[in-house]
Amino acid sequence: MVLMSKDLQFPIKDNFDRNAFSVNFPIYATTAYRSPEGDHFRYSRELNPTVEELSRQISQLEGSQSSTCFSSGMGAISTAFLSLLKPGDHLVMPMDVFGRTYLFARDFLSKFGVRVTITDPGTERVMEAIKNGTRMIFVESLSNPVLRVYDIRTLAESAKDNGSVLVVDDTIITPIGQRSIDNGADIVVNSLSKFIGGHNAAIGGSASGPSKIIEEVDSNRRSLGASMDPFPAFLFLQGMKTLKLRIDRSSSSARAIAEHLAATEHVDRVFYPGLTDSEYHDVAKRTMNNYGSVVSFILDADIDPLRFMSSLETIIPANTMGGVETLISNPYTMSHRNLGEQDKARIGVVPRLMRLSVGIEDTSTIIEDLEKSIKKAKKH
Length: 380
Known about the structure:
Strand content: 5-15%
CATH superfamily of the largest domain: Type I PLP-dependent aspartate aminotransferase-like (Major domain)
Radius of gyration: 21 Å
Shape: globular
Helix content: 25-40%
Distance between the termini: 44 Å
Order of helices and strands: HEHEHEHEHEHEEHHHEHEHEEHEH
């Protein structure tokens, strides 16, 4: 396993506010700032002190030169694409990325002349599609929802050899589980709404990387309008304080739950890179600090998936992940519902697939809830 830098201490400390020296960095609820004293900020769509402080802390967390924050994770991804790609450029990405990322590349970027290659899932398939002149490679380090581990170091070497920019979405594994910049990624994006926020209370995103690139991405954020509001920024700053504690707890529980589910009747298959029989275990062990807090599994044909979810008492069915509460979803009818049948089959999203986002509850409570609901959902 890869250890976090000893220079990164948790919680990351807030900069003291210049006015009151408050322990928590405050919410600057203002549209504009007195000139000339406030000309560094000028207008809150462009820059806000609370959002600036969050960006500083995200950059420290990612180990990047610079970071900028957005009103959503898709705001970060789409702005990075629009900043780094132009008509005629070649983009390579695997099929098993977040559904909206896939649709934005396939339907929007291609319409404006970007040559988009969507590969079958897996590091090897992505590598085969990269060629001299490929402008961008985009992957999720731990894919949603089947949890394939992408070898960021190998992809970074290929990107360097071909003059490509490697953009990695680290939302599921988080910078606690893997700092992709340390593994050679050029740009890292995160949906802050998930594990970094940690309380299902706000929507936001971030992009991190070299100052020169992030300056361009940030300039386009100001023009496109995907700017973060100071109120969500404050909530994310609170989430940052407990991030490592939450991830340490939830990833440990996830591993125990995955091992239990692998031996549970009426569970056909479990997807979790921490399982020693996972095809991704070796690369995860080599590149990651932990195996993540998400476990996916396929129920067998005797279990009704919707009845299974409705029978849960502690676990909450919801179309998100990353909170302190354990959440579950059926990607076939929820997160990936907009994909066609062929696309779903191509990435392994089948009707009985479940995605479990493990929270901080007692592990035995989660396991007991899963077992009881499986029994209640039997068709015969």
